[in-house]
Specification:
alpha/beta, 4 helices, 4-stranded parallel sheet
Amino acid sequence: MSKIKVLSVCGSGTVSSAMVGERIVELLSEHGYEVEIEEVSPGMVKGAVVNGGIDLVAFTSPIDPEDAKGIPQINSVGLLTGLDEETFMEQALEALKNLGK
């Protein structure tokens, strides 16, 4: 199992990011990943990235792309609504493949 760390970002860094984070763990574990989730608000992204170890950023609220420069950033609203989980998964798996994970 490959270990990865995902930053889950929502407006307040609590409810939506927790829901999305749980879904990410479920979906990526089906593909052999051991996932650690860190939940933050958009204003906390830069600090979380500086602390290191983030492989992906999944966001439901807009973030400044420069705050996580060099880290794949994927819109995860589809995981919150359940309407487009496939697009998120395709992008996440491709990003992880490109990272060699």
